[in-house]
Amino acid sequence: MLKTEFKNNILTAYIDGEIDHDTAAKIRSRIDGAAQSLKPGLLCLDFSGVSFMDSSGIGLVMGRYRQMKMLGGALRVINIPESMYKIFAMSGIESLGVLR
Amino acid sequence: MNIINEMSLSFPSKSLNESFARSVAAAFVMNLDPTINELSDIKTAVSEAVTNCIVHGYRRSKGTVYIKGKITDNNKVIIKIRDKGCGIEDVKKAMEPLFTTAPEEERAGLGFAVMQSFCDKVKVKSEPGKGTTVTLEKTISQTDNDR
Question: CA dist B144 to B32, B35, B147, Å?
Answer without folding.
Answer: 12, 9, 6
